[in-house]
Write a structure and sequence with these properties.
homodimer, mainly alpha, 9 helices, DNA-binding
Amino acid sequence: MAETRKSAKAPGVDGQDEANRRQALIRASARLFREKGFEATTVRDIAGAVGMRSGSPFYHFSNKQEILKAVMEEGLRQGLDRTEEALRAATTPQQRFHAMVRTHYGILHDEGSEFIAVLLYDWRSLPDEHKQDIIAVKDRYDLLWQASLKEMLDLGLIGANSQGGKASADEVKTARLMIMGAINFTVTWYKQRSGRGAMDLEALADRTVRFFMRGSA
Amino acid sequence: MAETRKSAKAPGVDGQDEANRRQALIRASARLFREKGFEATTVRDIAGAVGMRSGSPFYHFSNKQEILKAVMEEGLRQGLDRTEEALRAATTPQQRFHAMVRTHYGILHDEGSEFIAVLLYDWRSLPDEHKQDIIAVKDRYDLLWQASLKEMLDLGLIGANSQGGKASADEVKTARLMIMGAINFTVTWYKQRSGRGAMDLEALADRTVRFFMRGSA
DNA sequence: CCTACCGATCGGTAGG
DNA sequence: CCTACCGATCGGTAGG
């Protein structure tokens, strides 16, 4: 009788195993996509990286594009979590700004954190019908940035007007595009040093904050 | 007797025709690479775009990667030309900085000027043995930026220290990476409006300069 | 999740 | 630069 069910095991355990394999595929794909790009990565590469045969990833994803979407979603989920966590420890506008910058560098460059770099690099490989879903989540992340940059602009700590005063929505958006652009573009040139790399990201974050902030240390 | 030669036509004319076809391939490839990426563009796409059959591009290039390299080289050649030309008309540090920013936006976004965007987007598709050749030319372009940014930093017109004074090599490099990063990242989000788009690039350049410059207009 | 496979497509070549 | 082609590889599927 039990054999007529999908599985004799407890459903929770099976679901866990399946979710684990799916996660392994997402992580391996992120690493491969980051290294050689979505188009240049084959399903066989992905399968091989987690010890599967070439057809098996399609048990977890209906096609290659779905894997790309899952990688991007995972990146945004982790990114939002890490950012909200980092913001909890910051109490001043300057601290919040530094936390945003430092955390974003981690999201982009930490080992095992290739998801957002893939989002930036391989955006055009994502089918149009998936783009809106990703944008909706990304918007939430951008709002965290806007909040931080707005208070910095109002105080005259970044941007052209060192007197501060209420920054317009346009000024906030420009600040976000310029600052996030500068940080995001590091995916094209920043390489983690061997050994402990966290130190270097720290230095990069400090230099970035120092460059954008008025008369900072 | 003449038929034993490669061609009965004057060699100059033949060389011109061949160079023209080669240029057409480079331009069409740039547009296609920019649109869907190097890996997702097929040799058949490229051939079709200039009215050739699938095997014919290989009369001009020994393989697909050589086309990518040629696209990047063309971009740097044009970019250097345009930048030097723009700098000739500028006399103050502020004018030179604005000219660098404005020209770079044109290089990235003008119609028919997709070469540098391809360089940025598809860098990892370029075989390692070609990278150094491209970097060597790119270094010359970066030096123009460094010169402009150094004088701006020395005057305290950009960067953290509004007092100015001799900027260190590290400060100059950081400024270049941040500012060029911000501008280069526009390839991922900036879309030319319909109709005359030059106006919009002008506005984007103005906003960029205003954001990075101390208390500017 | 594997075995075995398929149709389509790809970069590239030979020989004019 | 075309015709005609090839070997390799790719994403994906059927049927366990």
